[in-house]
Amino acid sequence: MTNRTRILVAALSAASIAGAAACSRESGRVPARDARPLDTALVGAGASEPPLANDDYVGLRYESLPAGVTYRSGTVLSAARGGGDFDLAHVTTPRGEMIWLDSLARAGAQPARVVRAVLRLPPLARDERLFMASCDVNGVLDGRVVAIVVAEPGASRFTNIRQAWRVSAARRRFDVIPVGGVTCEEPGG
Known about the structure:
Elements: H1 3-27, E1 42-44, E2 61-62, E3 70-77, H2 79-82, E4 86-93, E5 96-107, E6 110-120, E7 128-132, E8 135-137, E9 140-141, E10 145-150, E11 157-158, E12 161-168, E13 173-176, E14 182-185
Antiparallel strand pairs: 1-6, 2-6, 3-4, 4-5, 5-6, 7-10, 8-9, 8-14, 10-12, 11-14, 12-13
């Protein structure tokens, strides 16, 4: 390799590293209305990926919640849309609020859950709320969508969406989705 080629490769590598760092900084930011960083790591244990450490909860098998974890709300994903028997559990842990994607199984006579993916939720502002399984995407109800909305007093339908994710049970992860076309509604509203 000539000196000129080495210099060109080094310059391209430095530019790639700087670009990746800039993208990383930008992707973890909330839009201009609120400059708090988002802590919404996509965590999952796919077929080829090893499970994460227990303190990240992926791979945890449980019949009742572990000490220090509180159940807030949840929903079962239909087999047709989720690809099997799964649920979403909104929990508070010592590490913050999370949504767990659990696979549902039976261990003998007892039902057992296994955490397959974790969505760490950012702290919600006073005017924000979390919605699961009650959001439309382009006018079609999508029970796999989790969204943070800016709540308006007295409203039962919300169009000001701060962040939205769609769970992929097959890939065992939460994917960020565009907020355009997402509308959430109070269940029964």
